[in-house]
Amino acid sequence: MAQLVLTLAGGVLGGGIGGGLGQSLGALFGAYVGGLVDQQLFGPQQDRKAVEGARVTDVSLSGSAYGQTIPTIWGRMRVPANIVWLRGIREVVRTETETVGGGGKGGGGGSAAQTVTRTTYHYYADVALGICEGPITSIYRIWLDKTPIDPEHVDEIRLYYGDESQVPDPLIQAVEGSDKTSALRGLAYVVLENLYLTPYGNHFPNFEIEVYSGSRPEVADARHLVRSVCVIPASGEWAYEPTIVRSRVRNANINSNAGRKASDFAVSIEGLKREVPNVEWVSLVYAWFGTSLDVASCSIRPEAEYSIYPDRLPDTAPYTWSVMGTGRPVVGGGGAAWPLVSSFAKPDGSTGLYYGGTISDGSIVRAIQHLHSLGYKVALYPFLMMDIPPPDPSPFPWRGRIGGAAADVAGFFERPDGYLRFVRHCMSLAEDGGGVDGFVIGSEMVALNRIRDGAGTYPAVPYWQAIAGEAKTRLGADCVVTYAADWSEYRYHDQGGANVDFPLDALWADANVDVIGIDAYFPLTDVPRAIYDKATIAAGWNSGELINYFYEAQADRDLERRGFDPQRSAIDDRFYAIKDIRFWWENEHVPRVSGTPTGPPTAWAPRSKPIWFTEYGVPSVNCATNQPNVFIDPKSSESFAPYYSNRAVDRVVQRAALEATEEFWSESANNPVSPLNGREMVERRFVWCWDARPYPFFPALTNVWSDGENFRLGHWIEGKIGNMLLSEIVRDLCLRAGLTEDEFDVSALDDEVVGYVVTERKPIRDMIGVLQTAYFFDAFESDGKLVFVKRGAGTPIVIDANDLGASENDGDRSRIKIERTQDTELPISIDVVHLDEARDYQSSTATVRKQIGRSESVTTVSLPIVLSIEQAQAIGQRALREIWQGREAVDIRLPTRAVRLDATDLIEVPVDGVYRRIRATSVTYGKPGLVLLRGIATDGGIPEFYTAPTGSGAIPPSAAEPVAPVRVELFDMPIMMDAHEASAPSFYMASCPVGVGRFRGTSLFQPTADELDYVVASIAGLPSVMGQTVTTLAVGPAWRWDRVNSVEVQLDYGSLQSLADERVLAGANAALIDNEILQFGQAELIGEGRYRLSRLLRGQRGTEHEIISHPIASRFILLDPSRQPRPTFGVSRIGSSIAWRFAPVPQGPAGDLSEELVFTNTGNGLRPFSPVYLHAGRDPASGDVNLSWIRRTRLGGDAWLSEVPLGEENEAYDVQVMSGSTVLRTTRVAAPMLFYTAAQQSADFGSVPASITWRVAQVSRVYGPGIASEQTSIL
């Protein structure tokens, strides 16, 4: 039997399981009472028990109080730091004296000289800041009062990661004494020595620190499995410089962007050491530039980033940029200089560079020495980048396409600006650096290596052999020399007509080449969806595409028409299978002519040398394992998404592929040992890539590094490889609760968790409950083990109708019982408050609302978890769907054979002739022969009732596509839903992209009170469906179907759909035209983005007074609260004209796409609706008139109640008696009626009138009188 233990009381657990496990489970989940976790969080109000994490607002304030809880962090997080030690504040007094006055030329001499003395006071302190429970892996950014720390404001920053070998800080020890200084083991902290406080108002600022706590060393995950990495970016003048280089022209550091007094390279390699701790080899990729795809004209050269005026030389210190003794161009000429990299004009008129310049010689030398000093073995990897600016060709090509005539190959290598100059210079750098452990003579020169001369030989190969011999001679016998072949070229060259040769075999067999180098980007899966199962991915190394079959074209792939060329025999299939590395390695290679083996074998000796994957990797994009070799970079001609990818960010598939690859080749069954040399077939694997620009500053600082946009979907592993899996966090929590590894199973929890923080003491069960809320998993006890499973995973088990209706002693034989929760008890909307990954961990809210329903309940979920806005939206979508689907609780009686079922299993049972899907929450024994299953419905066709998901993380085809300009509308209208009621006035913001580029959201900026700056007022994370009318809309009736009028709209973004009347009556298809809220049932597409709207409901939500003839070009906005945020501001600013600014994310208020928008908010969201059913009746006896009306409400008016809620703080009305347009009398009353006496009538009109014109408006304490209703009453 199985129970959902996360839903049971501790007593039940203790009694039902028994022994040590029961006690441990009781400790983990004890003192917890209730139903299913999701229903406890979101279910009926009377049963709701919130599982709540740290308040998201709690993760932003620092302090120095004793007794604060030390946060526990998994993954990456920004947390407030607590002052744990402070040395007294030191005051430094600075006095400056100058003489002013004292004579001068002309007119009567001068006044006496005066001495002016200025005294300023400056304050410094030494402080230790506790961060979180250790050990952690890395400490990234430090903020002081929300501003990144300026390294110039502190003498030294020392980082302590909280491990058990931590030693006391030397400064604290010197001040407090050795016997009184704790090492603070188990606490991660930083020490800021001589922190300058004056920039922070001479007080201690709020400290916040970004940290990364990765998996423990015993976890065999990617970051612990990887042993070798390629370090890029290969270009950037000081990218590999271990020392800070300063610009003498700009008086600023060039290569120190990480908030530390260290170079970017030094910080990045420190991060590599900590985050991928088992790396032994670093392949340092170093690039020059090729200028043509034709070997006859391709120059290979260094390039500089900028030129310099002669009077500003030297322009940098302590080193000057130089390659082969030659520097950058000097304005006006003046000696030899390298050319500049290609550039382009940015929209703001400034100049952008397509590449960073060639890395300075001295930096390469010092980088090699620095890496060696840290214990790494270093391979130098010469690399060609093609700097052929568009449009010749466009975009930038791959070096593998350099080709041409056989007669020109020699010139490509031997010209003064040829390849030999480049590779020999690389050898010199390696020598100057004290030697290297490996040297790559070239890489991926596919087209070059397939050039054949008239004799049928390959002229480039002897040059590679000669280069290998020279490298071996110069760099020593211990230096591993190889060529990095593309995965498509290492094996054979198919010349067509089944003629096959092996051009590189002469190189592989050469005595100066130590290993076979392959850039091994082979396809590992072949399915139209993402694969995360490591066993499936690993199997792709010895099966699947390019081993068992291949595709001729994309159409064959789509139709799964697989096979090998019919000319090839089955025996030869493995010969042509380029992914079958083992077959190639273990066998001789005989060329084919017309498919027939011809001539002697090549020089390759089977099993003679090991293979190194000089590169391998997987991009962090959906379906990456289908095509690991592709990448998304709009600058490159090779920019593609993998087969069947939706272009969504997917770091989990990247990690799974790395782990699967490392684990596969670590198995001796897959990786045989050569009997010739005792070495493994695949001996070393270099992961592409780790960047020398430190994460997270790269990719965040796009103003410094223009390729940051490519990072999200690229092959980079920093900031990705170490991201925690949900299974690792739940495992850690179970161990903390006292469970042993054999008492639980978390293997099914394969979601990525970027960051999770616990900031207060709470039961372990509650910590797991927060994760359950975000990641939708359950746990049940089965056979003495706590099993965690993804909710809804697995294939449903079909229960036959004959198995339903088992009973105890022929008692109640009802087949199935269903209890349904009232809809009004369920939430209509969910707000998911989370920490936004894209906004430096600041709090964001994603709102999801059910489009149909009578409930007005809103649930807020606070998750101290780092999420993207798309992920938070998806959580809200699924949670809301599960709540409404699960409003039916089901009891089923089954025979004993159903004992195979476990809690969390999905079953399908017939109900009234239709199979319903049920998720089991408990499976227990009744009397002998009876199994009782309790569950909740998980079907019901619910998704159609919900707003479409707001995004899957997908981005357009170009990851670095420019940001699109945006259109913004600010509109002041009645609130869309009761949950939007607020004491402060608000309005709505809608935005959409209006040009080419990528939409990441729109920021609205409000001027500060002094109008000297702007602050973020709101962010629209999702585009709105927007446009304008292209025909007039005539006046029509209010509150009933207008089947006569129609209006045509042209959309700037989005689409519209027709809906049935009942859906419209339930609130769907609401739109704003000008200032009128209306709804439409029919949306007829009549052109591209153009719709004719008809079957209208006019004047909705109190806007009947806006039913006018709307002219052409009136704004049109489809109303959707999940897409239109509500900025708020003070009551005092109602009616004020404010100059707001807006810009597409991530730009600020001064960005090149930012715009000003002047808008006046009149507070319409607080304005009471106009009263209805005005009535006036005269008392014949007294002549008094009784005026009465029925009020409306802004809030809660959709329920069928005898009287709608008041909706205001107090009930009040202003009644006015009119004479034409003149107000004769105004009376405020507290009830919906007024006696207008005969005496008052005579005073107003001179006599008792036969009719009166009067109006009435409900009054709001904040807004004042609302819209008035007016009527002329005949008495």
Structure overview:
The chain is globular, with a radius of gyration of 37 Å. Mean pLDDT is 85; it is low at 1-55, 57-61, 103-110, 565-571, 809-813 and 940-960. Helix content is 16%, strand content 30%. The protein contains 23 helices and 63 strands. 44% of the residues are buried. The strands form 16 sheets. The protein has an 8-stranded parallel β-barrel with strand order 10-13-18-19-20-23-26-27, surrounded by 4 helices. It folds into 5 domains: 2-53 and 725-753 and 761-789, no CATH class; 56-98 and 115-214, no CATH class; 246-713, Glycosidases (TIM Barrel, Alpha-Beta Barrel); 966-1165, no CATH class; 1172-1274, Immunoglobulins (Immunoglobulin-like), CATH 2.60.40. It is α+β, with helices and mostly antiparallel strands.
Q: How would you summarize what this structure contains?
A:
This protein has 1275 residues and is of the alpha+beta class. It has 23 helices and 63 strands. A hairpin with a 2-residue loop joins strand 40 and strand 41.
Q: Could you say which overall geometry the principal axes of the C-alpha atoms support?
A: globular
Q: Tell me roughly what share of residues is in helical segments.
A: 10-25%
Tell me the domain tally.
5
| Poorly predicted runs of 5 or more residues | 1-55, 57-61, 103-110, 565-571, 809-813, 940-960
- Give the DSSP E fraction (strand runs of 2 or more residues): 25-35%
Cα Rg? 37 Å
Number of discrete helical segments: 23
Domain Tip attachment protein J: 760-923
Protein name: Host specificity protein
Organism: Rhodoplanes roseus
InterPro entries: GH, GTA_TIM_dom, J_dom, Rcc01698_C
